[in-house]
Amino acid sequence: DTESQGASSTGATPSEEMNGTGNLMDFLDEPFPDVGTYEDFHTIDWLREKSRDTDRHRKITTKSKESYWELIKSLLDAWSGWVVMLLIGMLTGTLAGVIDLAVDWMTDLKEGVCLSAFYYSHEQCCWTSNETTFDDRDKCPQWQKWAELMTGHSEGAGAYVLNYFLYVLWALLFSFLAVSLVRVFAPYACGSGIPEIKTILSGFIIRGYLGKWTLLIKTVTLVLAVSSGLSLGKEGPLVHVACCCGNLFCSLFSKYSKNEGKRREVLSAAAAAGVSVAFGAPIGGVLFSLEEVSYYFPLKTLWRSFFAALVAAFTLRAINPFGNSRLVLFYVEYHTPWYMAELVPFILLGVFGGLWGTLFIRGNIAWCRRRKTTLLGKYPVLEVIVITGITAVLAFPNPYTRRSTSELISELFNDCGALESSQLCDYVNNPNMSRPVDDIPDRPAGPGVYTALWQLALALIFKIVITIFTFGMKIPSGLFIPSMAVGAIAGRIVGIAVEQMAYHHHDWIIFKNWCRPGADCVTPGLYAMVGAAACLGGVTRMTVSLVVIMFELTGGLEYIVPLMAAAVTSKWVADAFGKEGIYESHIQLNGYPYLDVRDEFTHRTLATDVMRPRRSEPPLAVLTQDSTTVEDVETLIKDTDYNGFPVVVSRESERLIGFVQRRELTVAIKTARQKQDGVVSSSVVYFTEDNPQVAEACDPQPLKLRRILNLSPFTVTDHTPMETVVDIFRKLGLRQCLVTRSGRLLGIITKKDVLRHMAQMMNQDPESIMFN
């Protein structure tokens, strides 16, 4: 009777043996630590994460019927998602407010200092002053430029040179501090962070990318980088900062910290909160997360993102960093409607945006590739300092590039009211004009407007060139603000041109119907807004979220149609030159394993063409169900670096039983050697339901590892078209897929193999997918 013989050798009774109780070999029924976590730079298995979460949920539901305490615990578990959202929203909003205030102060510090309180920015300093007149609202005795403070002279060549010198010096100091902090403490804090977050949300693991250090350093260096006057924005990095906050709060709840799939749902919502505070656009943030960043976005995540974005916007509004009770700097109030004929310049701006997007992506990727392959990449600090030096030296003489980019955009969006003191509003006024203040008719441009146009044209060229070299350096750098600046400058120039045409030629057939002399028909600020949307769309290829962000940002609700026209045109034009937006291009450049949902796979290849092992390669590394020893398994783990091993009935038949993960196998054997007596190198590892027969009592104790065996691995036959395989990988988020023919195991396809195959089919270098 082999059954009782097997039982007596383990010292348990046959009845116990049948139930598997009191059996040393089933020690794995207590969960052991570390199973189900992944290595760095590996891909998660969405299906597995999902089923693990369902199991956990089922356990909690059955337990909650047992006692009141368990019921309360289950309620807390259900609420934890909303609690995490609340915390993320509050922290993100607070950080965004602090960043805004600090950037404001440090940008002004480059030009001067407030004597009444050094921590006031220029604007705050002159608010509190009693000597400020309305015309000279920027000048007040409390605010002094550096030259005036040091030499006592505010005018003249000497003062200008001194101010110039100190402006450059401060800029260099800020950027040097930023790049040094990034290099020493958190190398992951550089760049915009959105490409990496897209990759992480698609199921890749980059340890430390969303860690506490990264959060701290990114927040500090973002302030320094933006204040140094470089051509970069704070929007992309704020998404990264928000996702770091999300990751931080996930670690407080085991529901999220132990399940990578659930954690990614939280990170999707955190990304929405990040955009919400970057632009003061909560709904735009949710749509941005849905359209641009997320990979897996169930309805539950949509509601949670909405809540997180709302809380973040509330918190930012409570801090009120701009002092105008608005969430953003660019709020505008236009009063004039737009006319059908204006769609022509709007669409032209859309074309400009698409062309600029293409130029920027190609130029920036080429430069980043040079940085990767040449000596340039070895000196990140030097590169940042040189670019900052060039930017500061060229930016100071031009009043439009000297100020911070967001102030520039804000001025370009503004409509010329009667109270504007800006150079852009220097029109020739009609002396006998008596009209209500807010509706000023179109007027001829004065000398100030022409000067401003020259300076804006120079600023446009400068911004276009310098942004290509700035994005991707080893400091936090966003892309939204510089792209919007390029578009806003181009748009404002076009707007003034159209306005002057309408004024001087109001008898032309295009202007006749809607532009009477003495009416206010063209708003140049609107053109700037449309141009900004077009350029941002050309670079990032967003459409829906872009339009929503733009009208939330500016409050220009009746201008949805012009914005939509420009966004769609810019996407069409840019797509004609290449399908990838800037983030996808950076993902490709860095070789992250990212399966884009938008990529079409149209080739007629089959699963056999892609699977490993190929004909020339050694056969697949497999485990058998009941004839492999512990020593064999350990050797296999040591000699290979595969993520897991298929389990077959025997090497002759090769009929597939299941799949076992490498990490779980390692942990299981290590734990068994520590906890279970009699497990030695020659012990047999078995994965079957019933116990193997132990011939003599002197045979070593066998080790049962059925619990870590995945009995339902995903399989396809060798004649499955690759199109279907790619779809399966995309939609189910698989990590690997086994290939069989009539039940026999032939090979394996991993996500990397799919990506390599896709790269090969597009005539790219398949080895560029370098992360293993």
TrEMBL record:
Gene3D superfamilies: 3.90.1280.20, Clc chloride channel. It is found in: Endosome membrane; Membrane. Pfam families: CBS, Voltage_CLC. One of its GO terms (molecular function) is voltage-gated chloride channel activity. CDD domains: CBS_pair_voltage-gated_CLC_euk_bac (cd04591), ClC_3_like (cd03684). SUPFAM superfamilies: CBS-domain pair, Clc chloride channel. Belongs to the chloride channel (TC 2.A.49) family. This is Chloride channel protein.
